[in-house]
Amino acid sequence: MKQKKIYVCTECDQQSPKWLGKCPSCGSWNTFVEETFEEVSPSAKKENTHRSMLVRNDEDSAPQKLSWDELPEYIRSNTGISEFDRVLGGGLVEGSAVLLSGEPGIGKSTLLLQICAALSKTKTVLYVTGEESAAQLSMRAKRLGVQGERIYVLTETNAQKVISKAEKLMPDIIIVDSIQTMYHVESASIPGSVTQIRECASIFINKAKTDGTSVILVGHVNKEGTIAGPKILEHMVDTVLYFEGERRQNFRIIRAMKNRFGSTNEIGVFEMTDMGLSEVRNPSEMLLADRPQKTSGNCAVCVIEGTRPIIAEIQALCTPTVYPAPRRMSTGIDFNRLALILAVLEKRLGLRYSSNDVYLNVIGGIRIDETASDIGVAMALISSMRDIAISDDLLCFGELGLSGECRAVMRAEDRIKESARLGFRKIVVPYRALTQSTKIPDGVEIITAKSIFDILPLLRKKETKDD
What we know:
Blueprint: E1 2-9, E2 15-16, E3 32-39, H1 42-56, E4 76-77, H2 82-88, E5 92-93, E6 97-102, H3 108-119, E7 125-129, H4 134-144, E8 151-155, H5 159-169, E9 173-177, H6 194-211, E10 214-219, H7 232-236, E11 239-244, E12 251-259, E13 267-273, E14 276-279, H8 283-287, E15 298-305, E16 308-320, E17 328-331, H9 335-349, E18 356-362, H10 374-386, E19 394-396, E20 399-400, E21 406-407, H11 412-421, E22 426-430, E23 445-449, H12 456-466
């Protein structure tokens, strides 16, 4: 066979005989990478075509009727870490393929070793490491206090050999750390290339689907923060988990970006300690631990992450600009959402943000995608602009429309209950968020708002009191 070079888009697998700056299929820039493959001879192509026709005529591949009578029952295994089980949807499903990605040093290997300690009590675990030696892995396990007679370590980067060893051991869970280090001997590309990652991943996924073995693949991320390799890798697996957090901080967040067996809105919160990752069962208290008192530009909001409400702290800072074009920076809130709220405040309230630099931040590394934080963002921006502190026991939630109206959001009663539990006594809610059956906790004052104008008296009262 003759080797041939082509260029493959890492986003959509579009192939081209030459390098292109922009992919003609998906429109992504600078995503073409060079790949080497063996060109198949015409006789081999004819043979493959004949084999594919035999497969199509096989009786096993005949169409079947869609029936609800025999639905598959997914068997889940608890990993021993409730926050991780929450993100998975209740536990690790047998025969599933999970892709766990994160930046280097974020704690992926540490988390997986802790999971091995719990799973090994009832199941056999094969930990395949292509980046570390068995001695290095043993040192980390000793530091974390991880031990188990049913944990096996395999130092190998050949995907076929890994499957061969797994067929002899017959493990219940296979952990591959990482998929970028594996290679397929029949592929001429280097390990970590698009072709190698796709081929190796398909081998492990096929093992999971045919034998019912749960497979956890560890994936690297590139400088853009996305999973390295072809985008098709995320389509092949059942679950895609992102391990987020700042390495210089102690808190880590696991977020499900795809989950065929559960919700994609759940998050798991962890704290990195000397003994590994510990669960944070009450993220709201953690996020509000160091909240400043009587400071302008600070507002608490309640958002829903999956099945639980979480109290987040939003901070805004507005300062007169020294640049021809004012700066806008947003962390934890979508930048376009910030621009929309600023435009509403300028148009409806006449506040001149166009001559100020605006910085917005969500404390704790939490990323808020829910529009229920709009009113909180607006209050923080107004508070910082006018230098008026918001009451420390005040919390708000609701969506802000382009006309300045406050729109209702779901699960208002759960948000109010969680806010009251953490000591908030004044809660700003949209006018139509409450119903006759909504239960208000004792000692809590509910302030309804139809528009952004109904929020201004809260700041004016505080300003008059301070004066």
